[in-house]
C-alpha cells in the first residue's frame, strides 16, 4: 500500500444501484487490456455481485474470508479472468463477515495485493456506515459514481465530504446513466449542473446504454469484446484517463442529433 | 420566455424539472454540508435579527438569513435591508 506504486482506487457512491459494480468490472477489464496488472476487490460483502458481472461466479473456490483466516494462499483466492489474465477478482466472503470484519482486515488484504498489481479497484457497498468505512480503509484515491438524479447527487455529496475528511486524494467523478435527450429537454440535471454542485473533476461520463444490461446478463463486461457501444467506448476511455492520457469526454451533442433532441433545443430558443 | 414555456402554458404540459432539482439540491446540500438543521438556522435568524434591530431599524418582514453553498464551502448569508439607524444612537 505505502511503498509500492500500486494504485488503490475506491469505487463508491453512497446510493445503491448507480453503477459502481458495473464500472469496477468494465474498468478492471479495460485497464488489463492496457497491460496493467489489475485486481478487482469485491468489498460489498452483504450483496456481492462483482463475480456475476465478470462471469466468474462458478470459478470461486476461496474468498477474502479464507485468505484472512489463513485457510488459503493469495494465489488460491484470486480468480484469474480467462480471456484477460492480467485481471483477477478477489471475491467477497459470505455476508456474516460483516459481523467481524475490521478496517485492519482490509489493510491486510491490500498489503498482500500491493506487490503484485498496478491497480486494485475496490467495489464499495452502498451506504456510509461500517461496510463503506472498511472498503475505504485501504483506498489511496477514489472514484465517486453518481447518476444525474437528485438523491444520487445528494448521497454522492455526503460521500465526498467523508472522503475529504479522510484526506483521500484524488477524488474524481464518473457520471453514469446520463440521458442526453432528457438533458436537452431540461428534464435531467446536466453534466455542468452536477459538476457545479459537487465540485469534483470529471473522469468519465457514461450515457444510459441498454448494452450495459445485456452484457451483465451474459457476464461479459462491455469492454471485454471490442464492442462499439457508447458505454463500452467511454469505459475504455476512463481507463486511459486514469493512465494519464488526455482523452476528451464524450460530446453529448454528437450523441444527440436525433429529431427529438433537436426539437428539444429549438424549444429552448428564447422568444421573449 | 422560451418556446417551451409558451407551449407548456398553452397545453398545460410539465415544466422543466432540472431547474427544480438544481434549486432543491442547493438548499438541501447547504444544510447537509454544515450539519445545521432548518430549525437551528431559524433560531439563529431570530437572534441575529434581534441583535441587529438594537442598532438599526429593519424593513418589516425582510430580514433573510440563509445557508448558501458553493464550491463545497458553506456560508451563512444575511440580507437585512435597513430602513433607518435608530435615533437614540
Ligand atoms: N450506463 C448504464 N446504462 C444502463 N444501465 C446501467 C448503466 N450502468 C449501470 N446500469 C444498470 O444499473 C443497475 C445497477 O448497476 P450496479 O453496477 O449493480 O450498481 P451498484 O453497484 O452501484 O449498486 C444494473 O442493472 C446495471 O446493469
Ligand atoms: Mg454493487
- Give the cofactors and ligands: adenosine-5'-diphosphate, magnesium ion
State the helicity of chain A in percent bands: 25-40%
Q: Rg of chain A from C-alpha positions? A: 19 Å
Helix % of chain B is: 40-55%
Shape of chain A: globular
3D architecture notes:
- Chain A has helices at residues 20-33, 50-53, 64-69, 74-77, 103-113, 130-137, 150-165, 180-184, 191-198, 210-218, 230-242, 259-267; strands at residues 7-12, 38-42, 79-80, 87-90, 119-123, 141-146, 171-178, 202-207.
- Chain A is of the alpha/beta class and 272 residues long.
- In chain A, strands 3-4-2-5-1-6-7-8 form an eight-stranded mixed β-sheet, with helices on both faces.
- In chain A, α7 links the parallel β6 and β7 (171-178).
- Chain B has a domain at 36-89.
- Chain B is built from three helices and four strands.
- In chain B, the strands form two sheets. Chain B has a two-stranded antiparallel sheet with strand order 1-4.
- In chain B, 8% of the residues are buried.
- The model of chain B has no long low-confidence stretch (mean pLDDT 83).
- The chains are: A alpha/beta (272), B alpha+beta (89).
- Bound molecules: adenosine-5'-diphosphate (ADP) and magnesium ion.
- Magnesium ion binds next to α1 of chain A.
Amino acid at each position: 500500500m505505502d511503498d509500492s506504486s500500486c494504485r488503490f482506487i475506491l469505487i463508491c457512491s453512497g446510493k445503491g444501484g448507480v453503477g459502481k459494480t458495473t464500472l469496477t468490472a468494465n474498468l478492471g477489464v479495460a485497464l488489463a487490456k492496457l497491460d496493467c496488472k489489475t485486481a478487482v476487490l469485491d468489498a460489498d460483502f452483504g450483496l456481492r455481485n462483482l463475480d456475476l458481472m465478470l462471469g466468474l461466479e462458478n470459478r470461486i473456490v476461496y474468498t477474502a474470508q479464507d485468505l484472512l483466516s489463513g485457510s488459503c494462499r493469495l494465489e488460491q483466492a484470486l480468480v484469474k479472468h480467462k480471456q484477460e489474465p492480467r485481471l483477477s477478482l478477489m471475491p467477497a466472503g459470505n455476508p456474516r463477515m460483516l459481523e467481524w470484519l475490521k478496517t485492519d482486515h482490509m489493510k491486510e488484504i491490500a498489503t498482500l495485493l500491493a506487490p503484485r498489481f498496478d491497480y486494485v479497484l475496490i467495489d464499495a457497498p452502498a451506504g456510509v456506515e461500517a461496510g463503506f468505512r472498511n472498503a475505504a480503509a485501504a483506498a489511496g484515491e477514489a472514484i465517486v459514481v453518481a447518476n444525474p438524479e437528485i438523491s444520487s447527487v445528494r448521497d454522492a455529496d455526503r460521500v465526498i465530504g467523508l472522503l475529504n475528511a479522510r484526506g483521500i486524494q484524488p477524488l474524481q467523478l464518473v457520471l453514469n446513466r446520463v440521458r442526453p435527450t432528457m438533458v436537452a429537454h431540461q428534464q435531467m440535471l446536466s453534466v455542468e449542473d452536477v459538476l457545479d454542485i459537487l465540485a469534483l473533476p470529471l473522469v468519465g461520463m457514461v450515457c444510459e446504454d441498454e448494452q450495459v444490461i445485456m452484457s451483465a446478463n451474459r457476464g461479459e463486461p462491455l469492454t471485454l469484446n471490442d464492442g462499439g457501444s457508447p458505454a463500452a467506448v467511454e469505459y475504455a476511455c476512463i481507463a486511459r484517463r486514469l493512465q494519464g492520457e488526455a482523452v476528451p469526454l464524450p460530446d453529448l451533442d454528437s450523441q444527440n442529433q436525433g429529431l427529438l433532441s433537436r426539437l428539444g433545443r429549438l424549444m429552448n430558443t428564447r422568444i421573449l | 420566455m422560451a418556446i417551451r414555456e409558451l407551449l407548456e402554458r398553452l397545453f398545460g404540459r410539465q415544466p422543466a424539472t432540472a431547474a427544480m432539482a438544481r434549486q432543491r439540491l442547493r438548499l438541501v446540500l447547504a444544510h447537509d454540508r454544515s450539519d445545521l438543521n432548518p430549525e437551528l438556522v431559524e433560531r439563529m435568524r431570530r437572534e441575529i435579527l434581534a441583535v441587529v434591530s438594537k442598532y438599526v431599524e429593519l424593513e418589516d418582514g425582510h430580514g433573510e438569513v440563509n445557508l448558501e453553498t458553493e464550491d463545497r464551502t458553506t456560508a451563512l448569508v444575511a440580507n437585512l435591508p435597513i430602513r433607518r439607524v435608530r435615533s437614540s444612537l
